[in-house]
Amino acid sequence: GRVWHLEKDPIDNEPDGKGISSIKTVPEVFLTRLSATKMPLQKFVDDLFDVIFTPNQGVTNLPPCVKYLLDFLDEQAEKLNVQEPEIIHTWKNNALPLRYWISILKS
Question: What is the value of pTM for the model shown?
Answer without folding.
Answer: 0.46
